């Protein structure tokens, strides 16, 4: 029997509860969630699991501001990918500031700064870090602001929407990418139970995105790519996908990104040699483009590390070598992503 009636935990631990069988006489009536972004779909699933007899509070606050300085009660009618973190507690001020530390308007993302009675004086025996993270408050002289490193934006209703860590905002091919935006779309798929996105460097020191996924039901990598392509530009589509039984957690229940394994170089189970001059020519281009020698003609371009930019480079090189002179080979590769199927298309494009 479950004896505790109020539970405080992280979203990662809350997700584990979705696997439980909840007894009808459960005494749990309140969850207080914090530590990471809380997906609305997860909150909704928990409410349904407990037959709408529980209240979920989404709490926000770093240790440097005495942990809890904002809170929001989840409502089933809420919309959006994540649950709001609410409004500042009494004697707490929250500022969303831009690069020049100017106040950001409603719906404009910026970095969160915390002021007020709950802000610590600094880090013990660490003057440099204290000077960097605890700055003078330009809006209230004589007081300090804590620089959180978290991104957020004010909503029209006066609540704050948490957008993730600033250091989880990366640049891919010159474009700024919010990793949690991709993660939230993946989590909206019913076949995906858990997801995290990180950026990595390939052998050529080019930055790419890697998705780590826990399945709730069977779904192929190709199907996932198709769904992402409907909602995201090409530069935001992960190049690699790693399926895990569960995501690694730190001792305090947060996702442990340092323990995520390196993605394996994927090739087909059976290595297939080229059987025509066109397949041989395409294979040579792929080897040079993808910086790999272990490619067979049945291997998937995207599973090997290809992306939209490399697809365009492939098209240019194929045209330069006189292999193909039609339009949009870089688009066709999404439909026929192996050398064998591409060669068949090139040989008979009207089929």
From TrEMBL:
GO cellular component: cytoplasm
Keyword line: Phosphopantetheine, Phosphoprotein
Domain Carrier stretches: 273-350
Matches recorded under InterPro entries: ACP-like_sf, AMP-bd_C, AMP-bd_C_sf, AMP-dep_synth/lig_dom, ANL_N_sf, PP-bd_ACP
BP term (GO), one: amino acid activation for nonribosomal peptide biosynthetic process
GO molecular function: phosphopantetheine binding
Protein name: Non-ribosomal peptide synthetase
Species name: Variimorphobacter saccharofermentans
Source lineage: Bacteria, Bacillati, Bacillota, Clostridia, Lachnospirales
């Amino acid at each position: 029997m479950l004896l505790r009636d109020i539970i405080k935990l992280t979203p990662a631990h809350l997700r584990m509860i979705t696997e439980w069988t909840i007894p009808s006489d459960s005494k749990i009536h309140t969850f207080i969630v914090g530590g990471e972004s809380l997906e609305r779909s997860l909150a909704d699933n928990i409410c349904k699991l407990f037959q709408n007899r529980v209240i979920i509070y989404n709490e926000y606050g770093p240790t440097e501001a005495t942990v809890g300085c904002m809170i929001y009660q989840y409502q089933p009618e809420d919309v959006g990918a994540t649950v709001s973190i609410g409004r500042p507690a009494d004697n707490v001020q929250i500022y969303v500031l831009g690069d020049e530390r100017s106040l950001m308007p409603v719906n404009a993302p910026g970095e969160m700064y915390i002021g007020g009675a709950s802000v610590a004086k600094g880090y013990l025996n660490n003057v440099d870090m204290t000077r960097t993270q605890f700055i003078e408050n330009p809006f209230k002289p004589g007081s300090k602001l804590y620089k959180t490193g978290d991104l957020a934006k004010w909503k029209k209703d006066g609540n704050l929407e948490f957008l993730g860590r600033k250091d989880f905002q990366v640049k891919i091919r010159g474009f700024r990418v919010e990793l949690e935006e991709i993660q939230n779309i993946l989590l909206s798929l019913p076949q995906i139970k858990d997801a995290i996105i990180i950026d990595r460097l390939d052998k050529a020191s080019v930055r790419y995105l890697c998705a780590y996924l826990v399945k709730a039901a069977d779904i192929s990598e190709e199907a996932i790519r198709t769904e992402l392509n409907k909602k995201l530009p090409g530069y935001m589509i992960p190049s690699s996908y790693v399926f895990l039984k569960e995501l690694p957690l730190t001792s305090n229940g947060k996702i442990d990104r340092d323990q995520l394994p390196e993605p394996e170089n994927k090739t087909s189970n059976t290595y297939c040699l080229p059987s025509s001059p066109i397949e041989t020519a395409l294979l040579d281009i792929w080897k040079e483009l993808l910086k790999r020698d272990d490619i067979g003609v049945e291997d998937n371009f995207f599973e090997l590390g290809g992306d939209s930019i490399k697809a365009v480079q492939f098209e240019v090189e194929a045209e330069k070598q006189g292999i193909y002179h039609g339009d949009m080979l870089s688009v066709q590769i999404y439909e026929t992503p192996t050398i064998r199927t591409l060669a068949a298309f090139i040989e008979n494009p009207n089929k």
